[in-house]
## 1
Amino acid sequence: MSTRVTSAAPATAPGAPVSAVRTPAPIELPREVCTLYPRASRLEWLLTNGTGGFAMGTVAGSNTRRYHGLLVASLHPPVARVVTLARLEESALTPGGAVPLSVNQYPNTLYPDGYTRLVRFSLDDGPAWTWSVGGAEIERRVRLVPGAQTVVVRYASSAPARLRIEPLLAFRDYHALTRRSPDAWTGFEEQTGAQGRVVRFQPYGGLPSLRIAHRGGPFSGAPAWHENVEYLEELDRGLDFREDLLLPGSFELEVAPGHPQIVVATVEAASTLDLDALGALFGRAEPRVRPPTPGRQGSRGDDLGEGRARLERAADAYLVRRADRSATVIAGYPWFTDWGRDTMISLPGLLVARGRLELAREVLEGFLAHLDGGLVPNRFPDAAGPAEYNTVDATLFMFQAVHAWEQAGGSPAFIRDVFYPAACGIVDAHLRGTHHGIHVDPRDGLLVAGGPGSNLTWMDARVDGAPVTPRHGKPVEVNALWYNALRLSERWARQVGDGPRARSFGRDADLVAGAFDRAFWNDARRCCFDVILPEGPDPRLRPNQLFAVGLPFPLLDGRRRAMVLEAVEAALVTPVGLRTLARSDPGYRPTYRGGPAERDSAYHQGLVWPWLVGPYVDALFAVRGCWAETRPRARTAIGSLAARLETGCLGQLPECFEPEPPFRPVGAPAQAWSVAEVLRVLVRLGDG
């Protein structure tokens, strides 16, 4: 059976409105960037395959994270991720000797020095490196096969060249590191056929074998270990950062103008690999010889239309199918899988705003299938085991996702037959009380998010088992979401002719509305308390109160909504998103560095989260109107973020930024809700 080139996600339903977005210009980096290792090794690229598997690395060519690799396979999509092929090391074989094209970080040294020969890097559908060797330009391009655990690497050259290719193998869980082991099987099997050569490796039992196919010379050489390869991003994160990689041998390729060579690596259980079909993943056969325009990394990187085009491409990285073929959303790369909260926040931007309504409905139905006690899962575990329901807000954000889907033209039948019955059960479960102490206070109708020791909101960091930002009790955004869930349920009840339930939902919503001002208004700061703890209100200035202003059914009167917006703008808005805590607060943390405990303690103590730009713009338009005077403010709020697509993980937006200039990207380098909320705002503004 051949490895097939197929689409990992279904096409948009016929008749669904699809945004017409131009193809983004490539991100191009010139020699002066590529050969400056401290910079080039901090610039990352990402490819995904629609199953949770991915490839990731740096512009310099080195791996700087334990998660980097040419083939990080998802053995039970989207989990059970394994770094199989860590990298391919290349050398150009010239009359003067071997010229290395690769680079690794070892203790106190970089070796070899291939990055010094880079003349350009570009990223469009995939990454491409171009080296200059003896007057020839040698290009390497990488693609992943959609829906398969297969990577394809193409080599091309402007002049005849001979390349030596050395695979480095990891074969380990992507969170782990491996060391030299006598248990590693260092033999290999090689077969030759009409398609070329296929060499098979399986260093450890219990993991699938890796097959590498090519049309070069025979595999040869004695196995060896590359010891103490260092991943400096892991060192920065306070984690183990040294690994030993297995080099089983090498093979050679002859590359000539008009005759590129394909190397394929896969863990798929296919008996043959169709190199010709897989080569069709690439376009032109010749390497690019025109250098990028000086001083430009992309042709229109500062234009919001170009930003939208790049975000459209970025969004597809997060859309995956589980092993059972159900659709879901990856929260971020490289270490997150699918999380309920992240999925529901991301859905309006990743899918609904782009007109992909049928796929959005499929994702919603997939999570509804796992409802338990009126809650959708917060997280599906990496290994076999039950889903985790430790979230108070994921299910409430689902109501907002369904509302956006309905407003975009989603079928009323889904509301009537699927979601409205589920909504009734969800509301009833919250009224009765459900997992983790989530319940409605019968005195005021406000929703309580668990008790001491729980952290069920999106601000969920823990250190030594204790919440960093205790928000048990009545969080402001949770109650804004709860109020909106009741109002939406009331409206849907009337649509389906369920008068008694409509009146019941309405009474519950009225109770919340009457209690909200009394509970949450902080007259001293002219804004909302962040959470009503059992011991009293928390007056810290945080962005969560924006949900009481910008959701479809706002709370507070018009004057107070304006005060909330002014307070947030004055203290929390930055060029790259919103701070999670005012700088004036004693708990404010201006950096995000050190080991896990130090970083987790700063996670929501000022750190900037780009996804919050969406709720901010919603509140901006709710208070000041979507007029000519306010739209420039919204464009300013996302303009710097669009430009950040050319920094960090190229073409993506990170999970967070440090809260002080230069706003260094931190956390996961590619995050779904960051991309989704900026894209949603751009679509709302009509830019691009």
## 2
Amino acid sequence: MKAKLRFILAAGVLGLLMTGPFALTALLLFADAKEAERAAFAQFLVPRLPLGALMTLLGFIAGLALLRGLFQQYVHGLLRMAETLRLMLGANRNFRVAPEGPPEVRELGRAANDLAQQRDELLNDVDEQIRQAKASVEEEKNRLAALMSELAQGVVVCNLDGRILLYNSRARLQFTALAQGPTSMSGGALIGLGRSIFSILERGQITHSLETIQQRLARGSAEPTANFITSTRSGQLLRAQMAPVLRTGAGVATTANVDSPPPTPPAWQGGDNTGSQAAPAQGGLAAASMGAPLEVTGYVLTIENITRNFEREAERDQALQLLTDGNRAALANIRAAVETLIDTPDMEADYRERFTRVIADESAAMTERLEATMNRFADALKTRWPLEDVLGVDILAAAARRIEDRLQLLIKNEDQDTSLWVRVDSFALIQAITFLASRLQEHYSIRELRLRLVAEGKMVFVDLIWSGKVVSSETLYAWELEPMSVGAEISPLTLRDVIDRHGGEIWYQRDKAAHNAFFRIVLPAAIMSGVQAMDPVPHVRSESRPEYYDFDLFAARDAEGSGIDPERRLTDLAYSVFDTETTGLQPSNGDEIIQMGAVRIVNNRLLRQEIFDQLVDPVIPLKPEGIPIHGITEAMLNGQPRLDVVLPAFHEFCAETVLVAHNAAFDMRFFQLKEDSLGVRFTQPVLDTLLLSAVIHPNQESHGLESIAERLGINVIGRHTALGDAFVTGEVFLKMIPLLADMGIVTLRQALDAAQKTYFARIKY
């Protein structure tokens, strides 16, 4: 029975106790008395009845107040203490009961705190033992994850349902660069833990490759891999190599050999999470040949974007075709003209001039076509140069170390932009910089060299600055054409070779005002520099394994397909936790969204790298009173996309996930009002941490986000920004899941039903 019903029942009992004896006494007296006695009693009682009723009422009110105070101190106080004790048991171990109320309740609170302290000491000892036992397993996982993160190829690992359980930074950058339209904004990449690879690659192609691998395994192939070329939704061509993740009957996971290039990805631990180390691929296949069964638990995809290579090959084929067709006709005309001149030695001068002109014109046309083809092939040679995207400051740092080591020349840095990326052969470029430094030291005796890195438009400038003698243009031209040599190290390449094959230039300039001179190496900026520099929320990092990996997802199977089954456990679902900042609090009266932020939860982990964060142009003025709260100004919103672009992007970001928000009815109302005009409908289930807090802690006075976070021991950082509130809400929700389980609420349907029974579910916007 609820406390309110118990209080009503107690008040009724109090009223009966106060009025019942008087009524019963009067009834007995009237029943046994004679008529004259009844009349005398009534004559005595009636004048005094109002005063008696008033005294009885005052006594009842006083008793009711006393009863209410006792209920507040004992019943409600003990209920709040019980909720606090549940917090101490699970969500916030450091939380303690505040000793308040009557002495008996305070004493009970102190006893509970003493017991909690003893419990914590025992749990800390157990946790330390568990931590030591798991240390080696986690170290191995993190080592494998770190190796994967540093690979230069895009690598994605999926389970058999196509759910992504691992990807590295290169894959993230590749697929983000491929994204077009709303998906590409605010870090909303096509890739993410728990997402389906089939939203990026063709399902049929993946399925066919998997079947091919299964057949090769059945035949005992030593290299059961498959290669295929597919296209993305944006029309980009990808070359993919698939290798199976195998598990023997003993539970040891391995991957099959992957031919080079690209290099072989490491083997990964399977879904049993026992911590067994991955065996070499040949060992796993050897085990199969000895009779141990092999089970395919997933697959590794190594991805390469070949769109540019394909286009260049097509251009080269076209150039060869034009050269062949054009020169065939020209050669035929020249041959005919020459044969005619040979066969007709006494030809008239006018006719001879015509045939000679034909030979000259056709020869000139052939020369022009040959030169154009040579230029196009020269560009093709540049594209075959092994280039990679590198931070410019890393190149200069390596060059500085090399110069100081080889030449003992003092190097200083000047105006180096740490965000600039260049696509270069880093070794050849460092050789070129060292070569120039050696020539300056040898011929001009410079004692100090300063390195500068700046950008202008799409070009990156690497400057070698010195003070002193002037270098002539003829000297630089001579240096460009000689093979690069530094001491005993001689390269067959010239400085001009390196510059040309990077598609760059080298200039000599003087700064007369500063009495300086410098060589400027001009290089194109990396095409993906903007994407690679993107590192959402760099200030928050996972304390355990890297964000892009979750080996436990090997064991996750999507038995219900891509839909969201309300009977699934809360711990088995993926979530998109979101929040909005708005111009005001009245969506039905014209207020608009000005910022949207979201973060994903997969396998009970808050993935701080998989976020959605976007400002929105509301097309209406901001209210001055709201600016100090959210910190967003009119200037910040100028040029930002409007909601008709942002909302579809957010809809794609949170596809196949349950939505989670604090006071979700407010945010969802903005979405609902835009359904007809934008054609975007959010049909997935929505969980509200405000309602869930009322389910878990019905006797607490506040269910605000900050109050809940304080109860659950969560530090609140970045409030009143959409993404900051989404992070806090996500952490709160993860703490709530075990508390709901303690109440018997373990499935999505149970959580939705419990939330709808709370008082706050009646709030409308």
